[in-house]
Amino acid sequence: MILDLFAGPGGWSYALSLLGVRDIGLEWDEWACRTRAAAGQLTLRTDVARYPVRPFVGRTTGVIASPPCQAWSMAGKRLGLLDQPLVHQAVADLAAGRDTRDKLLGACRDERSLLAAEPMRYLQALNTVGEPEWVAMEEVPDVAPLWKQYAAILRAWGFSVWSGILNAADFGVPQTRRRAILLASRTRPAEPPPPTHAQHGEPETLFGPGRAPWVSMAAALGWGATDRPVPTVCAGGGPGGGPEPFPSGSRKTLADARDRGTWQPSPRTRRTGSPAGTALARTWSLRTNSQANATVRRADEPAGTLFFGHRANECLWVAEPATTTAAQDAPAPEAIRITAPEAGVLQPSPADSPWAANKGQQFSQIGNAVPPRLATHLLAPHLGRTLGPDDFTLAA
Q1: Which CATH architecture has domain 2-201+369-383?
Q2: Does 353 score more than 80 pLDDT?
Q3: CA-to-CA dists, residue 156 to 135, 152, 215, angstroms
Q4: Which of 27, 55, 57, 164 has a CA between 20 and 30 Å from the CA of residue 176?
Q5: What is the per-residue pLDDT for 285?
């Protein structure tokens, strides 16, 4: 079996399904488990830190782990950085067969920090019988030093290991999501997958095909090949009908926009339920949150790293001033909250992903999921599969 620790809503699982195999996910969050169930993914709803490893010993080919990033992420208080010495100590102790987690947990400033050491508990137990064959782990960039510690231990156990930072945009994801990756194998040299995309694209040469340019938000969302795309504005509960697109508690903003005369549904809204604004010459950008240093990207670029949770309401499409008289006369909102379907496309997840829960929880799941397109590239070599020209088309 392939064991998926902290499986979340199923980014790794979806990637594996594209490669023709399945995993067993261990996940605690109720709504992520419901999403996995709706997608037909195998799941044990459990606390990864308390579940015994014994049922998996002698049966595990691969181990995947994406520990929760809240303690380390720039979107939070980053107390994991202060707890890092304790996490390193836990990893070293677990690798030696000593379980000091309870003692170390009491000293942690954020109890979630120590979850980054949990994969070592599983790996140490499995290593006693020469398992697993391969390992793939993912976290925010600040966890890179911890992955180097894992790498040193795994090499001592006979693995080939690579660890480093990869940018999801280099693999066709419409988001410059940088992640610390660890890849290890007992049977083949571990190395990062070759990038398929580059910021400005690269032409074909005598040595092989070039790389395509990064995928923009506009291209991913189907806004057309224009440098002035318009954002999706779903009118849930309003003139256009359709599902409510915004996180809980944010309906008032849409109502206010209508009252101010800054938002109107276009005719296409009523026909398709996938409405769009009507400004003809506005350039739209995505602002990831309300902080002064928030990432702002034009729609003809990839998004910055998407994170949600308590800031789900703050990820906004913002319009630059109109540049023509026609656009100035066209009613259009100055800022529109991103919808869950749009966020899912930018992750990117399948268009028909069965996200469970209310909108706020859907945003949280989307932000926490591993981009399946990146995961497919990371996992394909371990499974002896070759990807075709399209990231999701497997070569024969």
Answers
A1: 3-Layer(aba) Sandwich (3.40)
A2: no
A3: 15, 6, 39
A4: 27
A5: 85
